[in-house]
Structure formats: C-alpha cells, structure tokens
Amino acid sequence: MKLNARKSLLSLTIAGALCSLSMASFSEVKVGFLGGFTGPIESLTPPILSGAQLAVSHINSQGSLLDGQILVMPTADTTCVDASAASNAGDRLVNSEKVVAVVGALCSGATIAAANNAGIPGNVLMVSPASTSPALTDLKDNDLVFRTAPSDAYQGEVMARLLKSKGIDEVAITYVNNDYGKGFADALATAFEKLGGSVAAKEAHEDGKADYRAELGSLASTGAQNLVVLAYADGSGQTILRQAIESGDFSLFVGGDGMVGDALISALGADALKGMIATKPGTPDAPGTTAFSKLASTVVGFDPKAVFAAQAYDAAFLIGLAIEEKGSADREGMSEALRKVATAPGEIILPGEWAKAKKLLDEGKDINYQGAAGNHEFDANGDVPGVIVEMGIKNGKFVELGQLK
C-alpha cells in the first residue's frame, strides 16, 4: 500500500515537472523534507511525505514557480530520536542541497536540533507539519520555525477533557523522554488534575529498549487501571503496549498522535487494543479540507486522513505560495511572505488552486490560503490553533470518531 502511494505520487510529481519543463525554463527550486524515515515513526512518515509531494505535484502541473522553475523536494532522514542525525540531515539540506525552505522536521526534538544547527544559522524557513511540543513555541528562531499542527499544550487539554467525559478519573502516564513526550505529558497531567482527575504516576522512559517491564511494574504498583502512552507507534510505544497487554495489569490504553498508526494494530492485534482511546491533530469541517479530500482521492493508496498528511500538504503549498509572493527563490524574506499568504485579508485560495493563486499574485493582489488542515493564521511564535480529533479502532484500523473541543 505504501509502495503504491509513493509510486502514484512520484508519477504525479514527474508529470507536473514535465508539464512545466515544456512551458519554461529548466531551473529548479529546492524545498527540502526532513522526516523520520527510520526509527520509531517509520510507518507514519511515508503518508506525511506523500501529502507534501501532492502539493509539489499541484504546483508543478499548474505553471510551476515564478517563471517556470520546477519545485523539487530532496529528503533527509532525522531518525526522529537522534539529535546528531537530525542536525546532519538539516545540514545536508541547508548547506549541500541549498534548499530555500524545509518541510519538517516531524519529531519535535529533530526539528529543534535541525533548526538550531542548520536552519536558523542558514536563514532557512522551516515549516513542520508534525512537531507538536510546546518547546517550539519559545524557540529563539529569528521567526524561521513555523508549524501547521497545534501544540501539545492544546492537545493535552483536549485529551484531559476527553478522558473525564468518559468517566475516567485516574491515569498512569508513561512518556518517551524527549521534547514531544515531556511536553505532552506535562500538559495532560496539569489539565487532568485541574478537572479533578488523579495522575497516579507520570514517568519518563527511554526509547529503543527491548524491555519495559520494570517501568510497567512501577506504573502498575499505583493501582491505576488506565495507562496513557505518549510515545511512538514503531518504537517504545509499541513495545510498552505489547508488554502491558502480556502483564494484564491495565484495563484501558490511551495514546497521543504518535501512537496513531495502523502498523501498531497490525503488530499487536485489534482485539488486544479493543477500547483504546487516542487523539491526534485533525482537520476542520471547512472548504479547504473538502477540496483536499477530493484531490487526495485521485491518488491510489493515499489516505487524506493519515496522521499529519493534510498538515504536510499545507506546509509545502504555503512555502510555494511564499516563494511566489516574494517573487524570488532566495531565502531572505521567506517568513514575511509566508505570513502574508496565510493571513486575511485576501482572496481565498484552497488546496489545489495553484494556478488561481499564481495569477492573483502576478497581478499584485493579496491572497489568503485556507488549507487542508484549516486556516493557518500564524501567531507571533509561528503556532496555529488547529483542531484535535478522537481516534478509535474499528475493523482493524484507526478511524476518526469526531472533532473534540
């Protein structure tokens, strides 16, 4: 399935590029993609990349950038959890590939490492579709780091309300010991206790271990029956759930967006995860979401509701719009251009409407992109409010159960 999706999107990108090549110049504009192609989000990364590639195909098939420059997207692997690998990946894109901007990274720690060691020193705009740690909000980034997904400061509050609404009054929390896990766990615990809930334990764990039985024993000793796992579906989260199921110490499992991957269900079985509660950043009921779903439905094997796929489309499309607004493919002024094309007033541009946007910008008119994941009115820190949806398991897959407030 993933292979078919990649082939389809590659065909779209090539077709768009060939169309543009016949129209104008042979020059390229590079926008990089930083993803966790190996490591604990390995199965979550391909559909996120596919979302960004779909935006590239729409740009290249509708006139390309500026005077016909082709948009290409070199990729680099952060591994998600290795700061050195993330820094090196960012360095390759910024200093070797000479990208104008970057979609990514995905994991919050990887974004911070790549930004501090490559993006910010290189004056390169970074728009992450998936980094949700509250730590990004206060990053000293010279207005270069943005995200199209909401902060976990918000997701934690929403998850707390969801748990209370289901009559859950006590939880034990285990979280991966990085910016993502700690930020999410702190936000959830604070919000849950404010609502009258009890956090029996909140303990960090290291990713990549083969055995978490000692950590699970400590959490189970509190007597809590509800285990919240804030980690990754292909990493510690999967191992912890497997060993928790084997121990039989918990009756209910809860997960954040990093756990929402069908690979988790394939590995552990839908029956073993029956009743699991999860949340993820989602998409609102808005024209941009509808437009994106229709466009994505034409791509074989691509799920527009995959975790962070819509946010990745928006990140790539917004970067393209910012380049077009600026009128040049250099790094200077990208942040200002990004804010301009994403903010009212201006004529509304939906996903897939590159030709319309290009024409308006060429005429000197303002536009306001309303995307696949919502309207991206970036605040002073480059954050967006976004929406959170409840996830459940039906017919062996994660499915959306509704938007949460």
TrEMBL record:
Domain Receptor ligand binding region residue range list: 52-385
Subcellular location: Membrane
Presence of keyword Transmembrane: yes
GO CC annotations on file: membrane
Signal peptide: 1-27
GO biological process: amino acid transport
Gene3D superfamilies membership: 3.40.50.2300
Keyword terms: Membrane, Signal, Transmembrane, Transmembrane helix
SUPFAM superfamilies: Periplasmic binding protein-like I
Database matches in InterPro entries: ANF_lig-bd_rcpt, BCAA_transport, Leu_Ile_Val-bd, Peripla_BP_I
Protein name per UniProt: ABC-type branched-chain amino acid transport system, periplasmic component
Organism: Gynuella sunshinyii YC6258
PANTHER family in alphabetical order: LEUCINE-SPECIFIC-BINDING PROTEIN, PERIPLASMIC BINDING PROTEIN OF ABC TRANSPORTER FOR NATURAL AMINO ACIDS
Keyword Phosphoprotein assigned: no
